[in-house]
Specification:
The complex is a heterodimer of chains A (about 350) and B (about 210). Chain A is an all-alpha fold. Chain A has one domain. Chain A is built from 14 helices and two strands; from the N terminus they run ααααββαααααααααα. Among the domains of chain B are: about 30-60; about 85-190, Alpha-Beta Plaits (2-Layer Sandwich). In chain B, about 15% of the residues are buried. Classes of the chains: A mainly alpha (about 350), B alpha+beta (about 210).
Chain lengths: ~350, ~210
């Protein structure tokens, strides 16, 4: 059956992949920018404020104002910084965040109509790079994103930056373990690393979703995802009250903006993984499948903002305690129990 | 009352109310139990619910707190002490100030300057009256001391301007003659109490 499916699909060409990459880059950047607006609005509503209101209707053009500000700001490289590394570190964060999205199915596949000049008839796949180790690739790329904050903090000759970089290293490396172990159990059940297989495994209604089979893994993955995207209960990397701005202390203008875009792209990636791996993904046979996965992704994005409004953040030692003494043992036990159940 | 109790810095003997925070766990098992209790108590979800409730209140029940300041203003207290106003007599429309100079005298930051002269009816006339708002501390003594309720504090608290002089002259503070019917009595410092008429007594002249 799978072979027939593959034969029915049009040929994926290099042009299609490039178009897909451009679409991902443009749309996710825009969504990341829009995410800042959504975040400010949601936080404001939860504190019974109005949030940005003055630029455009309901402050919708605030993104444009912020973008203009970021792009036209002076690009400052501090005196004793390692200039090359300081300059490329934000690019590493943004690039790894977008490369991770290459293996994630975002937006439905479509064929460009024939009447379009040059590109007419090109098939644009839903995944830019449909490799058979999808989840591994995404997690690996997000882990490589660690180099952005780490190098940035170490290159800028600033003590806050160094502390922020050190926190980045311990936090990301520790929670990589939990992410990997927590997602290992669903991978064992499905028996594949491809997102498409995960999606196909969970077809046919809510009762087939993996969240019912792996609730513990879902909770662990969410917690670790919050830590890896540097969201509020674990936002120790750039916590103003403690380390000014952490690894981003000396950054300004567009370079700082690239850190920001990378962070929001990572939030979207984590939301997409959670939606596909645990919440059923997109129903390929249903017309509204893409709408549903958008809603699921939006829910996870909203959850991150909601949690930021509601919960205080933890101390660094509590963070490490939580990771190594609580989450990792639970994840290992979860994997073991899953394995035993599968064997029996 | 003596100063004794304020000089006593011995914390232990004062009447502090101790909060019941419970025992801190001693054994690892107790610590484990506390972690379990806190994990499954659902307090975190109470926090989530509170923020969601506030969001619903703000969005759908009109309980948004924001005041869009330049477009909306909160009412201020009638006793608020902002930029001064000079009031007029309601009947004649003449300014109330009799040029007695008490406000100039009492002003503790020396910001009131006035010059007076006798007019053709041998009545005191104010020829110059300025308040230096760079010095004024808005203490309200001038309004309190004024025997004629002529100088009072108004509700005008937005005093940013290009010229300091925009506020300072007698004519700027004086009620415009065409708005005399809108003139409000000041209920703050120095104003008569609400039942002043009933409380008034004849001056005892027996001594």
């Amino acid at each position: 059956m799978e072979t027939t499916l593959a034969e029915n699909l049009p040929q994926v060409t290099a042009a299609g992949v490039i178009i897909k990459a451009i679409i991902i880059l443009a749309v996710i950047s825009a969504i990341a920018g829009f995410g800042t607006y959504i975040e400010r609005k949601v936080l404001a509503f939860m504190q019974r404020r109005l949030g940005p209101m003055h630029v455009g209707p309901y402050g919708l053009l605030q993104i444009a104002a912020d973008g203009i500000k970021l792009f036209t700001k002076e690009d400052i490289i501090p005196q004793n910084a390692n200039k090359l590394i300081f300059a490329i570190a934000p690019a590493i964060t943004a690039a790894t965040a977008f490369i991770a999205l290459a293996a994630v199915p975002v937006f439905p596949d479509f064929t460009i109509p024939e009447w379009v000049p040059l590109l007419g008839g090109t098939f644009v796949p839903s995944i830019a790079s449909d490799n058979n180790v999808g989840i591994l690739f995404v997690l690996g790329m997000m882990a490589a994103g660690l180099y952005g904050p780490l190098l940035a903090g170490m290159a800028q000759a600033n003590k806050w930056g160094i502390i922020g970089a050190a926190r980045t290293a311990i936090q990301f490396l520790s929670y990589e373990v939990v992410t990997g172990l927590s997602i290992l159990a669903p991978i064992m059940i499905v028996g594949s690393l491809s997102f498409v297989d995960f999606n196909n495994y969970q077809q046919g209604g809510i009762e087939n979703w993996l969240i019912w089979k792996q609730p513990v893994a879902f909770v662990l993955f969410l917690i670790a995802g919050f830590a890896e995207t540097n969201r509020t209960p674990f936002d120790l990397l750039e916590h103003e009250a403690e380390v000014v701005s952490g690894y981003a202390t000396e950054y300004s203008g567009m370079r700082w903006g690239m850190f920001f875009i990378g962070e929001y792209a990572n939030m979207i990636t984590i939301s997409v993984i959670a939606a596909i791996v645990f919440l059923g993904g997109y129903a390929a046979e249903s017309m509204f499948g893409w709408l549903f996965i958008m809603l699921k992704i939006a829910f996870f994005f909203f959850l991150m903002l909601w949690v930021r409004a509601a919960w205080p953040h933890v101390r660094p030692d509590q963070l490490m305690w939580l990771c190594w003494k609580v989450l990792m043992p639970i994840a290992v036990i979860n994997v073991l129990i899953t394995a035993i159940v599968m064997m029996v | 009352m003596s100063l004794e109790q304020f000089k006593n810095r011995n914390v232990g003997t004062q009447h502090y109310k101790m909060l019941d925070l419970g025992e801190s766990p001693k054994t690892p098992w107790c610590r484990f139990k506390r972690v379990m209790k806190r994990t499954f108590k659902g307090e975190l979800f109470v926090g989530l619910w509170v923020t969601m409730r506030e969001m619903i209140n703000a969005l759908f029940r009109g309980e948004m707190h924001t005041v869009k300041y330049p477009f909306e203003k909160l009412p201020i207290s009638p006793r608020y002490r902002a930029i001064h106003e000079m009031l007029r007599l309601l009947e004649s429309g003449h300014y109330r100030c009799i040029g007695c100079g008490l406000c100039e005298k009492i002003c503790i930051s020396n910001c009131i300057a006035m010059e007076t002269r006798y007019d053709e009816n041998q009545r005191k006339e104010v020829s110059e009256y300025t308040i230096n708002f760079g010095r004024c501390i808005f203490c309200g003594y001038c309004a309190e001391v004024c025997p004629e309720l002529a100088i009072v504090h108004g509700p005008r608290y937005e005093n940013a301007s290009e010229q300091r002089a925009s506020f300072a002259l007698f004519e700027d503070m004086l009620t415009p003659i065409d708005k005399l019917n809108l003139q409000q009595e000041y209920p703050g410092f120095g104003a008569p109490t609400p039942y002043a008429d009933e409380n008034i007594k004849k001056t005892p002249l027996a001594y």
